[in-house]
Specification:
By secondary structure, the chain is mainly β. It folds into 2 domains: 361 residues, Beta-galactosidase, Chain A, domain 5 (Distorted Sandwich), CATH 2.70.98; 143 residues, Jelly Rolls (Sandwich). Helices cover 6% and strands 38% of the residues. The strands form 5 sheets. The chain has a 9-stranded antiparallel sheet, covered by helices on one side. Strands 2, 3, 5, 8, 10, 12 and 13 form a 7-stranded antiparallel sheet that branches. It is elongated. The N terminus is likely disordered.
């Protein structure tokens, strides 16, 4: 199954479902829930600075406070022994308060003879469940130390760790011991599995999922991967996450925008055909995930791709980054373009979003488009101008009342001035567009409009009410035109578009209210101003 549309990078977004069927793919494998993993413990506090020691620890306990970033699994403390063998007994406590001396979360007895001077000593224990920001206390004391038979701890007189302090004799609020804390992600964080967990014939690429927000994110390569998504990925049991994704369906266009130029057309490509590098991973103790695609001007085409546009790779460096937070129902998509040509070019990025929300009877059966002003079953253009840009109603949604009631919206934040309009189109318009866009492709289509690639002509045939343009058919797309304007040689600009994803709405009013509520949670993006051509 192939969808000929406006194409870009291999990126998938998925939302959870609670019922329905994904079609007749019962023979394909599905990952067991036990295959989902959280990252291992990582060092989330590293206070390794020190400039003095605390003297022999004899009478008073040493207390260091800190704020947790997740479930606590290990604590390191930097001891010193004066290069002698000491045999006093010590005890380590992990506590969540200082009021009750008998109350502790972890207790570990150890002997000073186990310590090596100027070396970290690790206290490992079963994970202590914690929420981000909770305060805890490391307490170290000895009941039988004496002068000449005692150890000490290195400390810093600077405020190198700002979220805690040392409580010991004359230490002030800026002092900290030298210590490190390791945590594993809390349960409400981003977990991952790999394609190898779905099929042993595939490589080790991760799928990131947040149970909290019930969305996930992954990626792949055009050609092999697209067919794999259709045939295997959508066979996840519907009570698990699956069934909404965006295949590589974007278009990148550049031209001179100068009527006097004898060669105004520079390049158009289906961006999946380019040779991208991919970087992805978890950070902030698995509270966030990122996925970044980068295209360098010299990279050229992917040798496995077909339909390479007009055969000229864009003279640009392009970076597309998706940012996923475990608690959010939206994913910002940051797009940067740098002009690497020796002349000024206008760059257009057509973000095309397709959804596969089928029950098996027909492709995209019962999938509908929804706008801020309600249902609209015909091809449509939503123009974004200065009057409505700040109303935060510049979105278009795709929904399906079956399969757990899935909704996916594309939102244009007001700071992205280059986002000029959203549009929906059907198969009839796509056939027209493909005739234009594939005029130099092996299919041999001839253009019916020579300047189709210009901003003002891209969606000329969309906004028309007729029986042929009725949107309620098997193929459904919505797209967003992002105008980067005219970039001078070496100039770079960034734009942001936001994906909104959720399931389980009650009705149309609830779906609209949830989209509006999520939009209010989206932060303001710091994007520079720039002028746009008419």
């Amino acid at each position: 199954m192939k969808k000929y549309a406006l194409i870009f990078f291999c990126f998938i977004l998925l939302v959870g479902c609670s019922g329905g069927s994904a079609g007749d793919n019962s023979s394909a494998s599905s990952p067991d829930e036990t295959n989902w993993s959280l990252p291992p413990s990582t060092m989330t506090i590293d206070q390794s600075s020190f400039d003095h020691h605390l003297g022999e620890l004899i009478d008073e306990p040493v207390i260091q406070s800190f704020e947790s970033d997740g479930n606590i699994t290990m604590v390191d403390v930097l001891f010193a022994t004066w290069d002698r063998i000491n045999d006093c007994s010590l005890v380590f406590y992990l506590r969540d308060n200082l009021q009750d001396n008998e109350d502790y979360l972890v207790k570990h007895d150890f002997n000073a003879s186990e310590l090596r001077s100027n070396n970290w000593y690790r206290f490992s224990f079963s994970p202590v469940r914690s929420e981000k920001g909770n305060t805890y206390y490391v307490v170290i004391k000895s009941e039988n130390a004496s002068p000449g038979n005692a150890v000490t701890i290195w400390a810093s007189s600077e405020n190198d760790y700002g979220n805690g302090r040392l409580y010991y004799k004359t230490a002030d609020e800026t002092n900290d011991i030298a210590f490190r804390v390791f945590t594993e992600p809390a349960e409400d964080s981003i977990e991952y599995t790999t394609w190898l967990d779905i099929t042993p014939d595939y490589w080790d690429r991760k799928i990131y999922r947040s149970r909290y927000s019930n969305i996930s994110m992954s990626f792949g390569d055009r050609g092999i991967m697209e067919g794999f998504f259709y045939e295997h990925f959508l066979t996840y049991p519907v009570e698990k996450m699956y069934d909404y994704f965006c295949i590589p369906d974007d278009l990148i266009i550049s031209y001179t925008n100068d009527p006097s130029d004898g060669e105004p057309f520079d390049s158009w490509v289906r961006a999946y055909s380019l040779l991208w590098t991919v970087d992805h991973g978890l950070y902030n103790n698995a509270m966030d995930a990122f996925l970044t695609y980068r295209y360098h001007v010299d990279a050229g085409f992917n040798p496995l791709a077909y339909t390479k546009g007009n055969g000229i790779p864009p003279r640009a460096d392009i970076e597309v980054t998706h940012e996923m937070n475990y608690s959010n129902s939206y994913i910002p998509m940051r797009i940067k373009i740098r002009n690497r040509h020796d002349r000024a070019l206008r760059y257009l990025y057509v973000f095309q979003d397709g959804a596969y929300m089928t029950q098996g009877e027909a492709n995209q059966m019962d999938v509908h488009q929804y706008w801020d002003d309600g249902e609209y079953e015909y091809s449509r253009v939503w123009y974004i101008d200065d009057l409505n840009r700040n109303n935060k109603n510049n979105w278009v949604a795709m929904y399906n009342d079956r399969n757990g009631k899935m909704c996916a919206a594309t939102y244009a934040p007001p700071e992205s001035k280059g986002i000029r309009y959203h549009a929906t189109w059907n198969q009839t318009w796509m056939e027209i567009n493909n005739s234009l866009a594939r005029s130099v492709d092996p299919f041999g289509y001839q253009p019916i409009q020579p300047d189709w690639y210009k901003f003002e002509n891209l969606l000329a045939n969309v906004d028309a009410l007729s029986s042929g343009s009725r949107y309620d058919n098997n193929w459904k797309w919505h797209g967003t035109i992002i105008d980067f304007g005219v970039l001078q040689p070496g100039e770079e600009r960034e734009q942001v578009i936001v994906k909104i994803l959720f399931t389980g709405y009650l009705d149309r009013a609830d779906m609209h209210a949830r989209i509006s509520n999520i939009i209010q949670q989206i932060p303001k993006f710091d994007l520079p101003e720039f002028s746009l051509p008419d």
